[in-house]
Design brief:
The chain is α/β, with parallel strands linked by helices. The chain has 18 helices and 21 strands. α14 packs antiparallel against α15. InterPro entries: AAA+_ATPase, ATPase_dyneun-rel_AAA, ChlI/MoxR_AAA_lid, Mg-chelatase_DI-like, P-loop_NTPase, VWF_A, vWFA_dom_sf.
């Protein structure tokens, strides 16, 4: 819910810079149907501080709640749950409201939204699309409204955001570290003044925050009276077509956002000027005709051809798939009762693995007033899920190592393929990580995905392990992680941090294999040491040049 009333928040009007982010948040308060804001940018730039300061403008907490969704939230906490103690002991249907229901008519904030687990992302997608959802628990069905403004923040170095969720954010802004010395000095002075005397600092900016809140309230009352000519609608459609956006959501949002902007500026009719002022908010994360790295304007994308490939940002890899000399062993079938396969799993006398069926247990108790555990049979053999974390950084271009790395993935996939085997793939590219293939059973799809992998930049294994977390949540599968890398990490990255990231984000992995692609007379041995520290199988990539 909204932060503790005793917790002092930095005033909204006192935040230096970030004018675009401020405006995008304000426009969503004026018209919540715009659909929220995604803040993409560097760490330590005050994204979270600004979002939390938004509560100073939102008015009554009951009418406009501010709900913070933790990155490690459980499904029950997100959608709600049934109080089993009350249901069993008092036979009362008591529902604990989920965060999405609590955020109705308010703001739902997700920090590091790109790290949210996939199945929770799917739940959010459904709720934001329909504005409501059903809670289905223990034979009980409840309907909840969930019309909220979704605000998310992310650092692209820690991984990308699923396109489906990114498109659900009405607006997006890119936040970069200020380069102007005077701006940085002012930010430091503001922070010091707030830390030294928070109460006085808030008093100094109270009237400014109240003035903005009043302006928002006035704009909301005028919103529906703003005139929109057909020529403006045509102009918005032309903009959307020019940027090659998918669907019609951008067309609609250009109109809605421009109308809210006109209301905020006390303008009675939308013109092309208002549309142009907010167009980047709507189109930046949807446009298909802008460079892939538009969200990182501070990077140097024009480097000389003779530079070290380790420093190149990106290029399309044209090398064919080359099969390595390695002989990878086909994995054995894994019995579910031989691993920690989730809670409430028991072994019956006949050797079958069973799990408690909560729904049948509760229904039986309500019908007969007798408490008896009901179970359901589980398969004793787990299906295989092979996850490939493939290093496609610039250093892998040397001696066609990336081509052999692709061949490694292809060879393992062919050797492990069965009717129920699934494959997923994460690419380490340009200092980040991206899921490029998710739970496919088709070998041709694996090969097609490999052919389209981009290469360049540095190796960020930490970002890769964070992406793995959402791929290994299904307990009916035996998750095998294959890491193909030369171990040449990002500058500033340490092996200890990589090991910690693996232990934190890869708990659902049952088996790990490191394929060391490092070549050369002098080797740093990071991949080998990583395999040793995380108790992974270790194998050296054997190419045709060895």
């Amino acid at each position: 819910m909204r932060q503790d009333k005793n917790q002092i928040k930095f005033p909204f009007s006192a935040i230096v810079g970030q004018d675009n982010f401020k405006l995008a948040l304000i426009l969503n308060l004026i018209d919540p149907l715009i659909g929220g804001v995604l803040a993409i940018g560097d760490k330590g730039t005050g994204k979270t501080t600004l979002i939390r300061a938004l509560t100073n403008l939102m008015g009554d907490e009951k009418e406009s709640p501010f709900v913070n969704l933790p990155i490690g939230v459980s499904e029950d906490r997100l959608v709600g749950s049934i109080d089993l103690e009350q249901l069993i002991n008092a036979k009362k249907e008591v529902v604990n409201l989920g965060l999405m229901a609590q955020a109705h008519q308010g703001v739902l904030y997700v920090d590091e939204v790109n790290l949210l687990q996939d199945y929770l992302t799917d739940i959010l997608l459904d709720a934001t699309a329909s504005g409501n959802y059903y809670l289905e628990r223990e034979g009980i069905s409840r309907y909840f409204k969930s019309q909220f403004c979704l605000v998310g923040s992310m650092n692209p170095e820690e991984g990308s955001l699923r396109p489906q969720l990114k498109d659900r954010f009405g607006l997006s802004v890119t936040i970069t570290t200020p380069k102007d010395v005077k701006v940085r000095q002012k930010i430091m002075k503001q922070r010091l003044a707030f830390d030294d005397d928070p109460s006085q600092f808030i008093i100094n900016y109270k009237s400014k925050d109240e003035s903005i809140a009043t302006q928002i309230k006035t704009a909301k009352s005028k919103l529906l009276s703003i005139k929109i000519d057909d020529s403006i609608i045509e102009y918005c459609s032309e903009l959307a077509i020019q940027h090659q956006v998918e669907g019609l959501r951008a067309d609609i949002l250009l109109i809605k956002t421009a109308r809210a902007y006109a209301a905020y500026k006390n303008i009675t009719e939308v013109t092309t000027k208002e549309v142009d002022s907010i167009a980047d908010f709507v189109l930046n994360h949807r446009s298909l005709n802008t460079p892939d790295q538009q969200n990182r304007p501070q990077e140097q994308n024009h480097q000389p051809q003779e530079s070290d490939p380790d420093t190149n940002t990106s290029k399309e890899e044209k090398a064919t798939i080359l099969i390595p000399e390695n002989e990878f062993q086909k994995p054995k079938e894994i019995n579910a009762n031989t691993i920690q396969n989730g809670a409430y799993s028991t072994q019956s006398l006949d050797g079958n693995l069973t799990a408690i069926d909560t729904k049948k247990t509760v229904n039986q108790y309500l019908a007969t007033d007798k408490f008896e555990l009901k179970t359901k049979r589980k398969s004793t053999v787990l299906k295989q899920h092979h996850i490939f974390l493939i290093d496609s950084s610039g250093s892998m271009l040397k001696n066609q190592i990336i081509a052999y790395a692709k061949g490694t993935v292809n060879k393992i996939a062919e050797q492990t393929k069965t009717q129920s085997t699934q494959f997923s793939m994460v690419s380490l590219f340009d200092g980040g990580a991206q899921i490029i293939l998710r739970n496919t059973t088709v070998l041709n799809t694996v090969e097609t995905t490999l052919a389209e992998i981009k290469t360049g930049g540095k190796t960020n294994l930490i970002a890769g392990f964070k992406q793995i977390k959402g791929l290994c949540s299904d307990m009916d599968y035996h998750h095998v992680l294959h890491v193909i890398t030369d171990g040449k990490l990002n500058e500033g990255s340490h092996l200890e941090d990589v090991i910690l990231a693996f232990k934190t984000y890869c708990k659902g992995i049952h088996k790990t294999q490191i394929v060391d692609a490092e070549k050369g007379i002098v080797k740093i041995g990071v991949a080998q040491e990583l395999a040793k520290q995380i108790h992974a199988e270790y194998e050296v990539l054997i190419t045709g040049n060895d």
